[in-house]
Design goal:
Three copies of one chain form a homotrimer.
Chain A (H helix, E strand, L loop, with lengths): L7 E2 L4 E2 L4 E2 L4 E2 L4 E2 L4 E2 L4 E2 L4 E2 L4 E2 L4 E2 L4 E2 L3 E3 L4 E2 L4 E2 L17 E3 L4 E2 L4 E2 L10 E2 L4 E2 L7 E4 L4 E6 L5 E2 L5 E3 L6 E5 L2 E4 L4
Parallel strand pairs in A: 1-4, 2-5, 3-6, 4-7, 5-8, 6-9, 7-10, 8-11, 9-12, 10-13, 12-15, 13-16, 14-17, 16-18, 17-19, 18-20
Antiparallel strand pairs in A: 20-21, 21-22, 23-24, 24-25
């Protein structure tokens, strides 16, 4: 495991070696990275971020202040975690009961978790999904879904660029990029250009 | 007041002497414990935990990252505080008004407060109660109660082990431990073995 | 820009010069203040507070633990920010899209933001408004309004002292200070003494 020469680590951060930290990644004040953690390139970790040993953070992720990534959390590339969003890895913790079965929380490529949202252990967040600020996620979120509230509910769909999608006859266009999306029984998919 | 020789305190934590810290308790990165605080044995305090002067933490409590215990908060033994759960000690704070009447927040034995929940000043949490992740507590929570939502509402009952209880004719059995619970006008009680 | 000789800054805090910090302001453990930030006099910044470069904090503000003030946030004097309350400055962040249009979040004089509340980018909080603990603010909050919930909704009115106002024929008196408030089409106003 190696730390790229090109990574920036603020002197107040604590890194327990060995870890993997990729090129051009920045780790800011009062972070703590446990040994074994794997953090990709071009990532940002804001103030007071914690990363546990078995966590994997893909390239290009942006993690805002006060986020803790516990064992069981995996971030695919290009995930955005808003400030103070919260993960868990046990559904029913008790101080006096040792549980050994961490539930996995998988955040797929490009997803955004809004500020101060909460993700209950074991929930998967689909690719390019968007969780509204302050939401509480209690079940899986589909690809490209926009969910808000406590508990979070599906209220719409959103493009890779972060633009609301309005489907007409199961087809929608991203008004910012021109991409075309299709809504099928399997969910929303981006139409690949040919 | 004394710090047990057997306690672990990470060098980045700030401890204002004198304090009581019991045996086998661990205090992790960037914590701040104010003088006068009393922390029992076998406790865990995660990253960026704050403990005010008059706070009492019972034996065996597990406090996850980013939790602040303000004056007026008391934890009985074996309390679990999920990451980023938040306490308060004044109901109607104003920056320009000095209030001298901190409201007490008492967390009874074995209770679990879920990740990122909020406890309004003065609310008591009953023994072995379970507050769901992201909930907002605005009134007292009974013993063994399971509460969720904003504001939090009673949705069921839970055993000491953290298992949902299904009452039939006011009797329920914990499926994990075999313990028997009774639901009476006073609430839920564990049937003591004879 | 200058730091008042009379300000207190805990040694564990990181201050990137130059900044403005006024007289009698206290900055506590593990804070980070970026260069360019302007913080008034008689302020309190609790543990793990972050202040970005372009932020302005008025005199007499009290900022509790774990609050991050991002570019675009302005606090007028006497604002109270409860612990772990969360701001944002982009409505639809994506890790792989650079957005240059931070939305301004203006908190007017004397307002209180409750513990662990979330303010979506671009929302204005009126003077002496009161945001309940754990609320999620998704639109502007009027002067003297009391709002709670996710999303936050208007549930009443509150005085400068922090006391609920009961309007009878559009007039209410603060039971603690005797001040008179009027409810008009424009909202609530304090009746100036003559």
């Amino acid at each position: 495991m190696t730390i790229s020469d090109d990574a920036f680590i603020h002197p107040s951060a604590v890194i327990d070696l060995p870890v993997d930290i990729g090129a051009a990644t920045k780790i800011w004040h009062f972070c703590h990275i446990m040994s074994g953690a794997r953090i990709g390139s071009n990532c940002l970790l804001g103030q007071n971020v914690y990363v546990a040993s078995s966590v994997v953070v893909g390239d290009g992720c942006r993690i805002q202040n006060n986020v803790s990534l516990y064992d069981g959390v995996t971030l695919e590339p290009d995930v955005f975690l808003g400030p103070s969003c919260v993960f868990t890895n046990i559904r029913n913790p008790r101080a006096n009961v040792r549980r050994h079965d961490f539930e996995a929380t998988h955040i797929a490529r490009g997803a955004t978790l809004g500020a101060n949202c909460t993700v209950v252990a074991g929930c998967t967040i689909g690719c390019w999904a968007f969780v509204g600020a302050g939401s509480v996620i209690t079940k899986a979120v589909p690809d490209y879904a926009l969910v808000v509230g406590n508990p979070a509910r599906l209220v719409g769909w959103i493009s890779r660029h972060g633009t609301r999608l309005k489907f007409v006859k199961n087809v929608a266009r991203c008004l910012d990029t021109g991409e075309t999306y299709r809504l099928t029984e399997k969910g929303v998919e981006l139409e690949e250009r040919t």
